[in-house]
Design goal:
By secondary structure, the protein is α+β, with helices and mostly antiparallel strands. It has 2 domains: 43 residues; 83 residues, no CATH class. Helices cover 56% and strands 21% of the residues. It contains 5 helices and 4 strands; from the N terminus they run H-H-H-H-E-E-E-E-H. It has a 4-stranded antiparallel β-sheet with strand order 1-2-3-4. It starts with a helix and ends with a helix.
């Protein structure tokens, strides 16, 4: 340690708090308005900077998905990507439910599907979900038989 560090102990919390309060009291209305203006400008500027530099952040705000009701017993999700690929349809159905998790089997199209195509894919997904359920039941039966 140097002689200067030994002569001046670190300031106490009270002294630091008093110093901060004195600075705040010395601010004029004009200083406060300028600080408020800087804050108001910096938040949108940060958002714009992040939007331009972070592809995942940009993707979060530019991509959307929504569940639509097409009068079929399946989950139909339409996703719109910011990359300009157009809408993608996903048709899925549940084949299992464990620990609050839904296990789905589905198909995704590269473009828009007609009502008849959605109905066809929904029927196909129900067939596949039945196969998946049967496979899971066989696996569970095997586990029970091989249990010591």
């Amino acid at each position: 340690m140097t002689d200067q560090q030994q002569d001046h102990p670190p300031p106490s919390r009270y002294a630091m708090t008093q110093w901060a309060v004195d600075i705040i009291r010395s601010l004029s209305l004009q200083n406060i308005l300028i600080l408020a203006l800087l804050i108001m400008v910096s938040i949108p500027a940060w958002f714009a900077w992040r939007f331009m530099n972070d592809t995942q952040f940009r993707h979060e705000f530019m991509s959307t998905s929504r569940t639509i009701d097409m009068k079929v017993p399946c989950l139909v999700v339409v996703a719109t990507s910011y990359t300009g690929k157009g809408d993608q349809y996903t048709v899925a159905t549940q084949y299992d439910f464990r620990n609050r998790l839904e296990f789905l089997v589905g198909v995704r199209s590269p473009g828009i599907l007609s009502d008849s195509e959605v109905a066809t894919y929904c029927a196909l997904m129900h067939e596949h979900s039945a196969i998946m359920r049967q496979s899971l039941m066989r696996i569970e039966e095997e586990k029970q038989r091989n249990k010591p």
